[in-house]
Structures are given as structure tokens and as C-alpha cells.
Amino acid sequence: MPDGRAAAGRWQTEDMLDALPLPHPFESRAGEALLRRATPADADAVIALLADDPISAARGDRAAEEDRPAYTAALAEILADPSNDLLVVEHGGAIVGTLQLTLIPGMARRGAKRLLVEAVRVRSDLRSSGIGSAVMRWVADPAAPALGAALVQLTSDAARTDAHRFYERLGYTGSHIGFKLRIPRG
What we know:
alpha+beta
């Protein structure tokens, strides 16, 4: 029975992550970590992870206090949308990683669903510790199959050559060229 949440003109009965085994404990070279759904209380830690990345910081993600309302509103919107979610990685009592997942139904590929991965970040002092690899392996198996996704896709800034090598090592292929049109904020 529908619970009253409407999305894209149809009733949703569950969040996409309800189908997934979360929280998900895993081991990395840095030790034990836990992948879980973000909560509003995680906003400051996620903002700090975005600012910890030089490319994101150059685009304006500087963790400025005056930007906090925009970030917290975005997090609330993501968490309220049953086709979107934000995950965080806990390690040593701190949030050290994050990623956003969006399940996209499609007409192409005989109606295949796509699992879009965005904003993958690991705290700079823990990069190359295996945390990112463990999280991305979790996305591909078990998350994508549990969600009925036939394809996991992501975009990566052209300047992120280390990230490109990382994704290629995990089996992703640079198969498409992406285009963006920046819309000025009103």
C-alpha cells in the first residue's frame, strides 16, 4: 500500500536503499570501516569531505559557514527522494568517505535501470587505503543487483586522472564523453 510519498507522478512504497544490506561493515588497509546511510547529522562531515578535495574546492565547495544552509537543504532533499541516497563511511569514529547513489529508470537497453554514482570522496589522508575500492565493490555487488540495475555509471572530472585510473582498475570503462551546461544561480 502506498505510504503517501509521490515521485515523478507515481506512488513510492520504499526508499531504494531499503533493499540493500546496510549498514555494511568492511575491512580496508586502514582497518575496519562501516558504510551506512547518511543522516542530517552528517552534513558537516560531508561538507568537509567536499572541501577536502582540491577540484571541488576550486568549484566553490569550501565549507564556508554561509553555504551551510544550501548544503543541509540539499542533503534533506536527497534523503527525502526515494530514488536518491547519500552514504557515508565511518572509520575510527569519524566520517571519512561519502558517495551519492541515484537509481534511474530508463527506456534504453530494453528498459534497463542505471545506478548513478556521484560525489565519491575519501578523506585525503586515507586515500589509497582501500576504502574507496571497498565502497565501489559494494556498489557493483551487492547494491546494483539488489536494486535491479543493469548498469553502474559515473562521471569524473577530466582533471581527475588518478580517479580515472582507480575506476579503470575496478573494471569501469571510459565509454562515453559527458557534456555539461552550467546554469547561473538566480
